[in-house]
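Ticket 4471: requesting a sanity check on a complex prediction with iron/sulfur cluster. Repro inputs:
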Amino acid sequence: MGSQYGLKFAVHLVTNHFGKIVAKVCETLFRKGPLSLGEIIRCTELTPEQVKNSLLVLVQHNCVQAYVPADQFRDEEESTVTVEYLALFDNVIHRLRFPKFLEIAKRQLDDECEKVLDGLLRDGRLTLKQMVERAVQGKENPGAIEAVVRGSFHKLLKAHYVERCPAPEPVVSTLIKAEPAPRKRGSKMAKKFEAPETIEQRVMEAALPGEAIRFAVIEYTGGNADREANSDDTIMVNVGDNSGGIANEGSILWRANFEEFIRHLRHKLLIENERKRLDDGAATILSAILDATKNVEKKVKIEKSVPLSLDSIFTEVTKNEYGRTMTIDRVRASLVQLGCPQRNLDDSYSIDLKNIVEMARNEEVESIVLKRFGGDAYRIFRLLSKSNCFLETDKIAELAIVDKKEAPRLLYKLWKDNYLHMEKLVVTAAKQSRFMLWKVNKPVLWEYVLDEMYHAALNLSLRLAFEQEKDEDLLHVSRDKLTPTDKSGEVNSVQKRYLRLRDVLFLMGSSLMKLDDALMLFHDF
Amino acid sequence: MNRLQGSSSSAKRKRELALVSDTLTDGERVLYNLILSKRDMGIWSGDMKRETNLPDHMVKKSLKLLQSKGMIKEVVNIQNKARKHYMAAQFEPSKEITGGDWYSEGSLDKELINVLKNVCVKYISRQKVVTRDGVLDWSRKSGVITAEVSNQQIEEILRALVLDDEIIEVKSTGYGDFENVPVGRVCYKSKSKGGVRGEPKDGAMSSIPCGVCPRINFCTPDGIVSPRTCVYYQKWLDF
Ligand code: SF4
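Returned structure tokens:
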């Protein structure tokens, strides 16, 4: 699940969006792992009513998943089934990215799709009927609007940006090997953080609708079902009689499919990084490959792109304007640049995506090192990061051309701040000598940096709120008083403060979004 | 330190020294032989006292005399600059003592390094791509580099520039910029596309105060150091 500051940041987001009581329930679930209603009431000391309502809100917004632990059923005497609630860390953090999701829907689809998605993100879960009602409310010409909403909904569904909500309370086997059952929650913090990870996966897997119906619409107009089914990739499940269909329309809940948005953002990062590192050609090819195979990707974090033959890559590439200028030789050369020197045995190419992600992570961390520790430390860090093995102090000074007296000091500083791993080596030959060996331990460092990023995001967000609060009175001043009106362009003090606030909010807002890109880079990609 | 000293005169010098050594006292001879035996490593005066058991004043006096006769010299030892370190005159200090090619008088010759880095970066950025041999060739022929610098040193500079992320090492694909380079040959390419050298990269973390904050580990929402009271933010948001 999340790191220490990851959880703090998540709770901060929940507090901002849903208030303190809901946040308390959510925090308790984060800290203690899955709990039953009774347990939550006991732990939070809130009233049953408050807890129930909080859970409803959290479930509605996909931040909590309920499930029934299967091991209860073995106990024959137990007649009632207890439901447990599991907080979903990732989905809470995704709330920060809603503006990005909306932007994707707008760019890739259209404004109307953005509006429908916006409704889903605001309300968490909606039936198609509710989406329509939401849109026609107080508007003229409801018929036309309804058609637009339905059209947009289908587009979103076809692009997999919308999915059917998971089962409300699936039965899940919680017996996970080499791990305490959730009932016996360990007293150590570390255990609590580890346990939910695997349970979370299980619960989500069990709750997820099968691929076939996850993105399927129940057709509501029996008449033209066949025609539409042929013209549309979306799977139409024809339920036979109309009344059943309409009833379903009012009962099937839909929500935004975060996974698909994250996949889209990951692809974008991969493509743009290769464009920066290599050139437009390489980016075009990578983009074509990822586009062609995205529907067969099993999960977001795939390490290698789905294998594709040179012919199919070429066909995909020529769908793109820039791609049409490329010859097959050029395509092959770009594939080599992308790290596919030879094809696989079956004449297919597959690109090492994990490597691109790693490079992007390196770059982010290196820029921190440069700014925090300076140019010499930057060289040392890059040397160790690239060589990926232990190096001795003097050797490091030599290879990075850093003063031999300075190197130990810098290495120590980097080590003290957790950026390096160090081991002492004592050699007893003719003379006893001690060596210091240094290394960048990436998996550990990535985790550490991610936690620092959550911490930074929390601080940035708190400061943003503070800045807003400081100038709250400006929010009540009418708009036309805030922008300079007279021709001399002179600004009075209120206007000055307003202009400053505007700049501050813009800078902080865009920094937070950029920081969120980095959070995804280290957590979701 | 004279890196360019030739060896042609060393035979003549040896003969001269042999003559001088006849006039040494016993104490001086013992010391001289000890220093000589350490060859290009030299020896610290403290170690001499221990190894010869000569009294302090004697060692001091003898060292002065030997030095005035031009038989030994004092050198800077990179491992400990404060210690008096001596070496027989005919030896040049080893890398362990000087620190290597890049050191002069016991410290890193940063000026030389920066000059070399600058000219190399400029040359490479003019070239689009260039092979390692290309850089070496240019460094010998162009006359831009006036200091006495070995091929190995140029290679070390290139490696440091790669670590600085000023240039990148790429393998030739044989296409585009690499048209005239055999496939697979290691090449160097300028990194910045018109950017200023040494410009800090704008990572997500490095462009906000908390990302590079030395106090982040002490900073809590309600602590003494907190985002609300933070001076770094105050500076950052001071438009
Ligand atoms: S809020 Fe200020 S003190 Fe706290 S981590 Fe950020 S920059 Fe540092």
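Notes from triage: The pocket of iron/sulfur cluster is lined by residues A 459; B 209-210, 213, 215-216, 219, 225, 227, 230, 232-233 (CB under 6 Å). Leaving this open until the requester confirms.
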